[in-house]
Structure formats: structure tokens, C-alpha cells
Amino acid sequence: MQEELNRIRENCLEDLKTVSDMKSLDDIRVKYLGKKGVLTAALKEMGKLSKDERPVIGKLANEVREEIETGLAGKKEALETAEMMAAIEKEKLDVSLPGKKPSEGNLHPLNIIINDLEEIFLGMGFSIAEGPEIEWSKYNFDYLNMPQEHSARDLQETFYYNDEVVLRTQTSPVQVRVMMDEKPPLRVISPGRVYRADEIDATHSPVFHQMEGLVIDKGITMADLKGTLDMFAKKLFGETVQTKFRPHQFYFTEPSAEMDVTCFKCGGTGCKVCGNSGWIELLGCGMVHPNVLRHCGIDPEVYSGFAFGMGLERVAMTKYGINDLRLLFENDMRFLTQFK
Ligand code: DAH
């Protein structure tokens, strides 16, 4: 029995020497220590031993078992270390390999325009005001002096949540919010998303962007409006651009105008882009209507001001010569990556 145990120990240690992976290591564990293992089988024979022999053999059997277990554990650790070293070796960074250039993103053309506009107006002392896209109908229409029967209030033109709440159809309600919240002098711009119940085509979309501007102070006149907006157009399109103000009608301004700029393509001589007129319509503007000032708690006898609003898709399309609004929303990378 003693001999057999010693042989088992020798055999096992010999087997362990040749092991090179976890699977065969486990096979060895099963072979010697498993339920049907060699050592287990030998120990079952213990019952046949005499009283004197039993403690001696029992002690030896324990030693052999411990030695086998230590051998297995040692081998396991060695294999794990070897595996880890191999993995590290495999993942080692070869700093001499040429790098992979990560693809560089760029801003969406609309965001480029918004950034440009913000920079121009911040440079002129304006600050940025924000308002909610889900807006009170009275802010979007009533306080802006729009009559009850105005067609813009139609279900066909405006998305209503209920009678009192709409998706704002213009950024003009931000004017109202600013005038109600703050005391003049005021000088703010407000870029943001607006919504109209329009079908999508080359020039319409139910979601688009506008930027509103508002200046309120003592003694503000139409000359301030024209000077500010002319300067803005020159900063956006270049010094040679000229502006023209055509009388127009908005409910929240009196008098009102639309501002055209000379065509960026032909410089004013007439081409396909400007429909041979030499001019491109850019924005609406006017002197803030006394009723609007009054609705917002500002005394029109003391203060006056001007406001303007423009569609940002239109500005982007004009500046970049884009002929279809949908290109701005389709997110085709071939289109979007052209604007740096
Ligand atoms: N809110 C107008 C629109 O959506 C644009 C506009 C015109 C805004 C004149 C103004 C303004 O502030 O004075 O068509």
C-alpha cells in the first residue's frame, strides 16, 4: 500500500511536468483526485489494513493528497501567468506602425450659420435669449398684436396642443418673454426651432429654424434698424453686399419691411440663383408696434425699438447656394461633410 501511494505521487508529479494547458491540467486532477480517481480508489482499500498500519498509511495518504493538490495549484498558477504574458505580448503596441486617422466630424451647415450669426450679433453687443418651443398661444399670437382672425392661427398652419398651447410658429414670442421679464435697454437675439403645419418640399418643412432680434431703448429709430441690419449683412456675406428695404406688413411691427441683399452669386447683375432680379430676400423687420410694447409692460411714449426675424435654412441656402431645403435634414454625409 505504501509503495502504491508513493507510485501514485511519482506518477502524478511526472504527469504534471508535461502539462501545457488548463484542459489537460484538469484531466490530471480528475485522474488522481476525482471520484473515480487513482488516489480515491487506493484510499478505498484502507479498510483492509490492520489497526497498526492504518494511521501510518492514513498519514502518508494525506501527505500524497496534499502534495498532489499543491502540485496542481502550482501548475495552475504557472499556466495562468504564462497565458497572461502571452496576451500582453500579443497586445503589445507597435509604436512604429503608421496610425489610423480617426474620421473628423464637422458642424452641420445650420449650426455653422447659427454660430456665425451669434458671433456677429454678440460682437454688436447683443446677448442670446431662449424660449420654449411649446408656447402659449397668446405669446405666439395675441401679445404680438396678431388679430383673432389671422390665417396663421389656422389649424392648417399651426400645430395646436390645445386652444392655449401651440408649437411656436416663429421665434417672435421670445421677444414677448424678454420684454416681460427684463427692463430696457434690451438687445437680444434668439435662434431656435419653429413649427408649421406645412408639407415638405424644396422650400418648406414642418420644422425649421429662425432667429429673432430685438432692440429696445429710448430714441431707437428706423435708422438704427437699417444700420444694424446692413452691417449684419456685410459681416455675413462680405463687405460688397448691398441691402434694400422693401415696405411690408407684420402685425407686431409698424412700419415693417423686408430686407433683401444683393445676390451672392452674381453680385446684383441678375442670375439663375436670384431669379434674374439681382436681389435675394433675407429677413423681415420693423419698428416694434406700440401695442406689443404695451402688452409687455413697456411704455411706448418712453421707449421704442426694432425687431427682425429670419429663417435660418434660408440664410444657409443663400450663403452656401443650396437649392433644396430637404438636403439639410436628410443627413447624407456626402452633403454634410462639404461644409467646414
Ligand atoms: N416672425 C416673422 C415670421 O415668422 C418674422 C419677423 C418679421 C420677425 C418681422 C420680426 C419682425 O421680429 O420684426 O415671418
From TrEMBL:
Q: Does the keyword Cytoplasm apply?
A: yes
- Phylogenetic classification of the source organism: Bacteria, Bacillati, Bacillota, Clostridia, Eubacteriales
This entry's Enzyme Commission designation comes to 6.1.1.20
Grouped into one coarse class, the protein's main location is cytoplasm
Q: Which gene encodes it?
A: pheS
Which named protein is this? Phenylalanine--tRNA ligase alpha subunit
Q: Which domain of life is it from?
A: Bacteria
Q: Where in the cell is it found?
A: Cytoplasm
Which EC class is this protein assigned?
Answer: ligase
> Its catalytic activity?
tRNA(Phe) + L-phenylalanine + ATP = L-phenylalanyl-tRNA(Phe) + AMP + diphosphate + H(+)
Which cofactors are reported in the record for this sequence? Answer: Mg(2+)
